[in-house]
Design a protein that fits this description.
Number of domains: 1
Largest sheet: 5 strands, antiparallel
Mean pLDDT: 84
Number of helices: 3
Radius of gyration: 16 Å
Strand order of the largest sheet: 8-3-4-7-9
Structural class: alpha+beta
Distance between the termini: 30 Å
Low-confidence stretches: none
Number of strands: 9
């Protein structure tokens, strides 16, 4: 599979959500959200910064988290990875400075689903790491089982974005 540039990852996730029949900013169905996100995890991202060589698997991470903020509950599906350091302006990644070859930024593409305040879940900040596009089937199955605890709930809204969490 041809790698998608990391800068285009959020657009790729939006495309996969639409291919599943959803609207990226109005996903109510948790199952649809997971199918699209799981398909997104299989897409290799190009341009990642990998300090490690050999069998280490730190370049690409899947994180699943459920938290409460402002009276609403939110499920976060995150794909976090490291890229060569870039300058960010107004939330948009710019170019890599010419003298920063050894520096890196952590970036994430996230799908957030917001639920009514009475929705609860037993999702405890699950994470796993892999080479880009190569998550282990058992890790994906575990993440899916956590996400599916919310399959009976309807999300109020959703959001896909590329962010620098630093």
């Amino acid at each position: 599979m041809t790698p998608v540039p990391w800068r285009d990852g959020a657009q790729e996730l939006r495309r996969l959500i639409m291919a599943e029949g959803g609207a990226p900013d109005r996903i109510a169905d948790v199952r649809l959200a997971w199918r699209a996100f799981r398909a997104f995890l299989a897409v290799p991202l190009g341009g990642l910064f990998d300090r490690w060589s050999g069998t280490h698997a730190e370049a690409d991470m899947l994180i699943v988290d459920f938290g409460v903020s402002g009276g609403t509950n939110g499920l976060l599906l995150l794909r976090r990875f490291t890229v060569p350091a870039v300058e960010w302006q107004d939330g948009v990644p710019g170019e890599q400075p010419e003298d920063d070859d050894d520096y890196a930024d952590t970036v994430q593409i996230q799908l957030e689903l917001t639920f009514p305040g009475d929705v609860t879940a037993e999702v405890d900040d699950f994470w796993t790491a892999a080479r880009s596009g190569g998550f282990a089937p058992e890790d994906l199955a575990e993440a899916e089982s956590l996400v599916m605890t919310l399959s009976g709930a309807r999300a109020l809204r959703s959001r896909v974005e590329l962010v620098n969490p630093n």
